[in-house]
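Tokens in:
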């Protein structure tokens, strides 16, 4: 399914893609003119947005390290994006070389580049699938025989659940994923919000309607609901920079400026 220039045949170059816009903001090379135009327009409305994306990456890195500390050595990273520096497998395998990671993304460019990057890393796998079909993600992940679903698993949903509209019942999708995970597993979510946001940020988020992956901003309470009955780790669902910063100096005066909440919860064994 490759075009002559090495790109997957199913890429639609007439519309910007969220993964490629995100790649551009992070300084990556896997984006096209149509993506850069949208990125620049968003950036001119919200100079903060590139910072938001970096803050999201930083949150994910800290969360993965906490999961490793909890003894988790296998990860299902859904909405993993185009590989840039500091990918989950790099963070995890630097701490535990035996850590296993499956990347999942709906975007064919993200999937193609992930496969390319991971050639030779036999503790990683890549799946081209849609979070709106968690049953298929789980079936494909099991088929790869890389993760052991009887052992604690890290489910990573960083910056992706806001691409699921309410009509697609994100709460049910997440419940399906949680139900597949053994006790001791952890769920990591970061999610854009309208809470505490200036108008220009909300306007910029609306531009996402031009991509195939429109964003739905949600409240802290709605985002907290995605963790179901799992136990939220301290400090709960907070603006991303406030989630276990490496040092107090990493948190500036306005942590809400990055427009997204982050949290981590653990599947504890029921008592009794
Ligand atoms: C903002 S990026 C986040 C990348 C990475 N998780 C991170 O935090 O650095 C969102 C990613 O989610 C992917 N995505 C959007 N909707 C999706 C869906 N329904 N299923 C799977 N992936 C999706 C996009 O293609 C994009 O690569």
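Residues out:
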């Amino acid at each position: 399914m490759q075009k002559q220039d090495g790109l997957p045949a199913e890429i639609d170059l007439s519309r910007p893609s969220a993964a490629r816009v995100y790649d551009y903001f992070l300084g990556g090379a896997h984006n096209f003119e149509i993506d850069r135009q949208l990125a620049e327009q968003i950036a001119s409305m919200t100079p903060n947005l590139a910072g938001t994306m970096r803050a999201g990456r930083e949150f994910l890195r800290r969360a993965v390290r906490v999961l490793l500390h909890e003894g988790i050595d296998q990860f299902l990273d859904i909405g993993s994006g185009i590989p840039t520096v500091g990918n989950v497998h790099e963070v995890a395998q630097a701490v535990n070389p035996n850590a296993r990671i499956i990347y999942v993304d709906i975007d064919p460019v993200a999937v193609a580049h992930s496969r390319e990057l991971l050639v030779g890393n036999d503790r990683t796998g890549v799946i081209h699938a849609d979070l709106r079909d968690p049953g298929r993600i789980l079936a494909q992940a099991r088929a790869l025989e890389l993760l052991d679903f009887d052992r604690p698993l890290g489910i990573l949903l960083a910056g992706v659940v806001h691409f699921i509209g309410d009509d697609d019942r994100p709460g049910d999708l997440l419940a399906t994923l949680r139900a597949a995970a053994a006790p001791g597993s952890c769920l990591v979510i970061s999610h854009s919000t309208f809470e505490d946001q200036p108008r220009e940020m909300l306007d910029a988020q609306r531009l996402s309607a031009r991509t195939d992956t429109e964003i739905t901003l949600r409240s802290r309470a709605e985002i907290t609901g995605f963790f179901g009955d799992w136990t939220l780790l301290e400090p709960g669902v907070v603006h991303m920079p406030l989630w276990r910063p490496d040092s107090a100096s990493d948190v500036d005066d306005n942590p809400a400026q990055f427009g997204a909440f982050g949290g981590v919860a653990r599947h504890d064994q029921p008592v009794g």
